[in-house]
Fold:
Amino acid sequence: MTTTEEQAVQATEPNEHGYRSYTLGEFSFGRDEHFAHIEWPTGRHVMAVEPFLKALMRDIAWNFFYGTVNFDSVIGTINHYGNVDLFAGRFNEDYRKAEIDHLENFPHEEIKATFEAMLGDWVNDSFDPFAAPQETGSAYGDKNGDNTAAVTRTRVTAQRMVGLPEDEPLRSDESGYPVNRMFADVDQGEPEVRVEPGYEKEVAAFSLFKYLSRSDVTWNPSVISVCKDSLYCPTTEEFILPIIHGNDRVEWFIQLSDEIIWEVADRETGRPRANVIMKAGDCAAMPADIRHQGFSPKRSMLLVWENNSAALPGMIARGETPNVPVTF
Ligand code: PHB
Ligand code: FE
Structure:
């Protein structure tokens, strides 16, 4: 048993590969060179450890996100904003029919502490779960150091707003973030702003394309503007969204550059509903009753637009607001 400062984390001594195993309620998690092994009273599941760690990283970094985070077609979490369900087979038609699905609810802090301990222990020094495949080493093999800087990374924050004098370093080489290899063609010009004298420190504009071209992570929406419950969350994407997101509200996508292919399926059963190919300039709304996963062949820029209202999941569950933003 080991203990973190705030929460007791149930962990074993390291196994022959150097990794600890973790228990959370009736679930247990173990890893070897290649796989994460997950067990619960009525079943067991195995996942390649690389996709498992990429999903785990995002579930933690996003505080369990909106609605459901499916690690794959079996394992995942449901956010109830304060407490979190951990499940196996809950959104898998066949596991449900066979009655081998399992779900347990945990206080937010308890599941977070266990997931953080597992991530810290299972990520080796060569691997960055947020990086594109060609920008990181391997997740596989016996325990070999750790990558605390990568797994505890937090988003870069502005003092006031990108573009204002005190935040000037954020959009230059001084930021420490070079322009990504895939965005070498992105125009590094800034908009011209003519400010009424006296307001130079208050009025600013910046090129979001230039700003995003320096992003060193993939599939990690950040919040760039907040207006009441409206959150603009741009992100840079390459390869596969490491989770399959089950929505609890409508969300909008604006494809800012390049292309993403979305597989959209029924949230409950996983039955396919649509394949959506989004090219630069395309806009789509994802319904509140689906799950989706994106595939970005080349690094691309995506604007995710979220409605952060805490009232929405309840309103949708009670049928007080539709699952789609427009009916044609
Ligand atoms: C989503 O589930 O809507 C999502 C998650 C992460 C991204 C983009 C979209 O980077
Ligand atoms: Fe989503």
